[in-house]
Amino acid sequence: MAAKLEESSSELYERCTNAALSSPEGRAKIFGQDELLKMGVVDSAQALLELVQGLMDAQLIRLMQMEGKICYALRTKDDAAKIVTLNDDERMVYNQIENSGTNGTWTKTIKQRTNIHQTTVTKAMKTLESKKLVKPVKSIKNPAQKIYMLYHLSPNEDVTGGPWFSDGELDVELIAITADAVIHFIAQNSWKTVYIKREATPDADGISKKRKRNDTADIEGSHPKSRRAGGYETQISYPAGWRGYPTVSAIHHFITEAGFLKDSSALAESDLQNLLDVLVFDERIEKIGNGYRTCKGVFGATEAMKNIMQGRQVADAVEEVEGNGLSQAPCGRCPVFNLCEDGGPVNAKNCEYFQTWLRA
């Protein structure tokens, strides 16, 4: 009879373990009495009670109460084997820590609830830590207080502060590295790089200076590349309505796959959104529709336009970048020229650059 009862208890435990591992909650899954009956090991509540009592005696399952109903939580066989070796005081301390879940608890609270002397609590803590049943965790709310939770649990964000905190302190270096990586990724998908050829300038004889240099290069036997017209690379905006800017989801995927975070799974999109909001506030990136792009993705014209907005003379501002008389007008070097159109997001009526230039 005893052997059959033990066999049924083991079968119930295995079925509960499989159900927990296949559920979203994992090991933290809570079972109600009705759910245990549906496992099909026994067909009556009385028989189930005998099986559960056997598992509780072996420390493989613990009794809980949620919303006024009795329920049960599993323990691993390794943890159960360690708990069996604890004395009464150590087990009382362990139960208090176990009940605190991912919030954890500190020694003063344990002392008050168990009515155990502080010296005994401290000794019990050392035993539980040595058996790797519990672990100390730093809390951002009370850095001076050491809280404890079960060894296999991960503290919630109320305790750790989220992925931007390390050992209870704001990880400034991690934030800076992540921000640089985010900006680098956004910059690669923000602007279109084009090659601008320089126009040859005719001299007094009507022969282009560029051609004269090429003729000399031919005589000297230079590489054919030297005969190509000179030019420079610049970046221009994508057309209005462009939907290829990186979204929060795309940036989150890049960061989690990059591999420089200790625990990529701990970084939620909401955490990344907070970082993006800070970068927007710092004017390092800007939000375009549902995506983001860098604020300084255009070479050359950006500094000139910045000088114009700061009230400098137009001629002085344009002198800093190469151009001709036509390009002294803001339209000639506008970083968002391709977006400018009547009724569009950028147009001549609301152009800050153009109005400043007219008043200069």
TrEMBL record:
<dbReference type="GO" id="GO:0005737">
    <property type="term" value="C:cytoplasm"/>
</dbReference>
<dbReference type="GO" id="GO:0005666">
    <property type="term" value="C:RNA polymerase III complex"/>
</dbReference>
<feature type="region of interest" description="Disordered">
    <location>
        <begin position="204"/>
        <end position="230"/>
    </location>
</feature>
<dbReference type="GO" id="GO:0006383">
    <property type="term" value="P:transcription by RNA polymerase III"/>
</dbReference>
<dbReference type="InterPro" id="IPR007832">
    <property type="entry name" value="RNA_pol_Rpc34"/>
</dbReference>
<dbReference type="InterPro" id="IPR016049">
    <property type="entry name" value="RNA_pol_Rpc34-like"/>
</dbReference>
<dbReference type="Pfam" id="PF05158">
    <property type="entry name" value="RNA_pol_Rpc34"/>
</dbReference>
<keyword id="KW-0804">Transcription</keyword>
<comment type="similarity">
    <text>Belongs to the eukaryotic RPC34/RPC39 RNA polymerase subunit family.</text>
</comment>
<keyword id="KW-0539">Nucleus</keyword>
<dbReference type="InterPro" id="IPR036390">
    <property type="entry name" value="WH_DNA-bd_sf"/>
</dbReference>
<protein>
    <recommendedName>
        <fullName>DNA-directed RNA polymerase III subunit RPC6</fullName>
    </recommendedName>
</protein>
<dbReference type="InterPro" id="IPR036388">
    <property type="entry name" value="WH-like_DNA-bd_sf"/>
</dbReference>
<dbReference type="GO" id="GO:0005654">
    <property type="term" value="C:nucleoplasm"/>
</dbReference>
<comment type="function">
    <text>DNA-dependent RNA polymerase catalyzes the transcription of DNA into RNA using the four ribonucleoside triphosphates as substrates. Specific peripheric component of RNA polymerase III which synthesizes small RNAs, such as 5S rRNA and tRNAs.</text>
</comment>
<feature type="compositionally biased region" description="Basic and acidic residues">
    <location>
        <begin position="214"/>
        <end position="223"/>
    </location>
</feature>
<keyword id="KW-0240">DNA-directed RNA polymerase</keyword>
